[in-house]
Amino acid sequence: MLRVRIISTKVGSRSVQIVRYADGKRYIIKHIGTGNTDEELSSLKQVALTHIEELTRQSSLFPDVKSSGDIMMLNQCEYRGFYYTFLYEVLRTLQARLGYTGVADDMLNDLTIMRILEPASKLRSIELMESYFGICHRRQRYYESARRWLELKEAVEKQTINFAREQYNFNFSLLFYDVTTLYFETFESDELRKMGFSKDNKSQQPQILIALMVNHDGFPIAYEVFPGNTFEGHTMIPVIESLIKKHQVQHFTVVADAAMISTANVSALQQAQIHYIVGARLGNLSAVLFKEMDRCLKREDGNIIRLKTDNGYLICSFSKQRYKKDKYEMDRQIDKAKSLIGQPSKTSKIKFLKTEEAKTTLNEELIEKTKKLLGIKGYYTDIEESVANSTAIIERYHDLYKIEQAFRVSKNDLKTRPIFHFKEEPIKLHLLICFMALAISKHIELKGGTSIRAFLTDCKKVTDARLFNKITKKEFRMRTPIPENLQRTINSFDRPH
């Protein structure tokens, strides 16, 4: 029978021990500690009682006595660092709400969390999981599971779309489309990694082309991967048609920038009964259409015209602010062109210069045409005025910046590029993880009204201190209080948009 024994010491303090009596003898099982006050003595007695319960595996005979499970003497504990368990719990909860925990295993979801928290290589992420959260994964399991994870792209997109329907009222009626390039830290190309036009100014390195689709709020819906030398204008039709077929979409409007417009694309969109709003490159207009636009559009702030063309309706608007910006850029380029006349080796890519019969001069015709376009922005659409007026069309097009924001989050916060993988399967797995991380990050930003970096910084202030009780040989954790403003942000994740 184990008992708690309290004895007085020579210095006036009292010592708490766990003892056992047998055969008329007393055996000291454990020395708990020494207290100088009644409060310290009470805490030590509670620790001793808990230790007895653990040793004997019996409950206390006095249920009204307070359990000591939460009582620790700090001088009997060893600090072993801290974990970001709170942050992990928040992100894992969001993964569950998006449906990712139902289609992907713990390791893939944990790699996604690490992509949000601290982007690194997959093996480095496995190491960081243990440091940050105390979660251990075997490296070998990553190699065993990676190929199977590649089959989850369609299931992940389905869950993401279902979440967008629930939280953002998404119904495919309006979708924003754009592409970007991701480069590799290598100079060797293959069937997927190709040299091409780089939006990161890395044309000397192989790359891939990523098509991303987002809803009106900028929340990601789906993505596709293309070889790096694919012309971006050739990606839109197959991606959209695949999406429509896969989800049996009835009404669809795509918004894209001017690089996506071509006679072939417009024809394909019209044939598939897909509505479109795309940017127009006014410098490429036919002479007849350019003259009509120039004649009809008054250079007054906010003026808009709508003209019938082979590519649908051409909508043009004039802005004084855009005029100032365009004129400044034109004047700067003209000054540069003038300064380089007479230096043939430096004039090959200068906009307002032309060379005829080995003589370089200013291209006055191009300058005059550029002056007529100052302050004007053009858009193509097939949507009738009775359905959406020209102002509404322009407003929808301007929302295209939200997909650019998504790309910035992906490239900067999630460190999607550069890519260090060299085989197609690891590359596609990397992009799957980045897409899942992007969906979670954008939801946090949209609902919480804060950047993902600021949110992570706030969450990392809530830590779980790891304290090892040297008496019970167990580790306890103490969490710092959660700030009210952070809790309000987290609560906002459940509110309909």
Lay out the secondary structure.
Layout: E1 2-8, E2 14-22, E3 25-35, H1 38-56, E4 77-83, H2 85-98, H3 100-103, H4 106-117, H5 122-133, H6 139-149, H7 153-168, E5 175-183, E6 207-214, E7 220-227, H8 236-247, E8 253-256, H9 263-271, E9 275-280, H10 287-296, E10 304-309, E11 312-318, H11 320-340, E12 353-356, E13 359-362, H12 364-373, E14 376-381, H13 390-398, H14 401-413, H15 424-448, H16 452-459, E15 464-469, E16 474-479, H17 484-491
Parallel strand pairs: 5-8, 8-9
Antiparallel strand pairs: 1-2, 2-3, 4-15, 5-6, 6-7, 9-14, 10-11, 11-14, 12-13, 15-16
Helix pairs in contact: 4-5, 4-15
Describe this protein's structure:
The structure is a single chain. The chain is α+β, with helices and mostly antiparallel strands. The chain has 17 helices and 16 strands. The strands form four sheets. The protein has an eight-stranded mixed sheet with strand order 7-6-5-8-9-14-11-10, sandwiched between helices. It has a three-stranded antiparallel sheet with strand order 1-2-3, with helices on one face. Helix 4 (106-117) packs across helix 5 and helix 4 (106-117) crosses helix 15.
